[in-house]
Amino acid sequence: MSHFVNPQRYDSMQYTRCGRSGIQLPKISLGLWHNFGDVTLYENSREMIRTAFDAGITHFDLANNYGPPPGSAEINFGRILKQDFQHYRDEMIISSKAGYTMWPGPYGDFGSKKYLVSSLDQSLKRIGLDYVDIFYHHRPDPDTPLEETMSALDLIVRQGKALYVGLSNYPADQAKEAIRILNSLGTPCLIHQPKYSMFERWIENGLQDVLQEEGVGSIAFSPLAGGLLTDRYLSGIPEGSRIASDSPFLTSDQLTEARVTQIRQLNEIAQRRGQKLVQMALAWVLREGKVTSALIGASKVSQIEDAVATLNNLEFSQQELNEIEAILSR
Ligand code: NDP
Known about the structure:
It is a single chain. By secondary structure, the chain is of the alpha/beta class. It has a domain of 230 residues: TIM Barrel. Helix content is 37%, strand content 14%. The strands form two sheets. An eight-stranded parallel β-barrel has the order 3-4-5-6-7-8-9-10, surrounded by seven helices. A two-stranded antiparallel sheet has the order 1-2. Strand 5, helix 3 and strand 6 form a beta-alpha-beta unit. The longest helix has 16 residues. The chain is globular and about 50 Å long. Bound molecules: NADPH dihydro-nicotinamide-adenine-dinucleotide phosphate (NDP). Keywords: NADP, Oxidoreductase.
């Protein structure tokens, strides 16, 4: 049966303007990196998209390689769109990316025009769309001239295959240059997608200033550090968690004793605030308004509900911020 969409879906979500653009993004966005591939129960993935959209999450983030196997998250998302959201495409911001290894040989990786254009063509076929809203270059390419990669993004917009373009994982100096080139081509950079959380703060050393100066938005990926900044690992490694899975991206060696101590101390502050740790971690990423949206992942519906409830308390006292800094510096 197709889904009856919640008519109140815009009542409680908050939206933030993305840099100096016409686009507003929900403060919480949903990424499909894990738990939307063919190894996951389709009905669970479908239920998570339904829950998200019903809560006002209008932005869904994909990449060519999300799965496993690579490409399957786009196929499954396309199937969900067709089954449940046929009439809602225009209420969604759907993104995809290319930049990591996708197919064998010299044309299925990094940042050539050949790779970006053909990869997006493949993504559009998999999702079943005429265009994506945002197309990203997924990571910097040390060998392809930045002019070529940026002109590929510009071409893709002119072809009508993407409405906006973004950069991901670009350090401050390369982001600045890429933004300059895109401006000169007449296709401004909408957004940068960096990793950012209490445990990963590199963007505070330069990148955030560049984005602010240039009027480019930002969407923080892995704001929960893959699940570390939740109550998931407060007492061990539970079955079904990312660490317990065979994902190479979060492994038990990252759960050091010092880390667990930090997580417990942060959890105490969250409890004092009347929040779950996941909610405090997301509110922290969104503090000061420098980040447009927090891009979460989820393995179950309740995790999306937890994330959305962050909006009930986004404020921090100076004392809370100081306490958090003290814990993070230990
Ligand atoms: P998060 O840091 O939000 O981690 C998500 C994981 O945390 C979930 O899968 C779940 O793991 C756990 N979790 C979430 N909510 C809760 C909760 N309420 N209670 C307990 N555990 C919870 O983000 P991801 O690392 O998943 O990345 C998010 C998105 O960012 C991706 O889907 C992708 O779109 C994007 N991304 C982009 C990259 C890039 O290079 N541009 C790289 C990586 C991600 P569990 O399985 O344990 O339940």
